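Pilot study result, target chain (144 residues):
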Amino acid sequence: MWQEFKQFALRGNVVDLAIGVIIGAAFGRIVESLVGDIFMPIIGAITGGLDFSNYFTPLSKNVTAPALAQAKAQGAVLAWGNFITVAINFAIIAVILFLVVKGINRMQRVADAKAEEAKKAPEIPADVKLLGEIRDLLRDRRAV
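Predicted structure:
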């Protein structure tokens, strides 16, 4: 059983998947920082300091706090502003990932085109073809 598990764990696809998950988590943090630290402050500056994350609707009469964290401690709240912030983050992340995948696909197409070009046999120059034909004619003449 141990040998079987070792074969499974060391199979190429499992290792590739593990590497993909680790890189994906790191990339996710980079994109989160890009959205939270660069894009959202710009959006906030454009909209006059609008910060959706603190918008909520109290679901209990006991909730009187102006900030979301304090309001949650007082009772049930509908944190719709936080949802809008997360939705905006998702949209920005989706656009960034689309552009990354598009760039990778473009690089792959260029690499495939170069590989295809390298596979093609080089065309024989006209003078070399002519010399080959002359050689063949002379060989045929000697054979007769």
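One observation from the pilot: The CA atoms of residues 13 and 19 lie 10 Å apart. A full batch analysis is planned for the follow-on phase.
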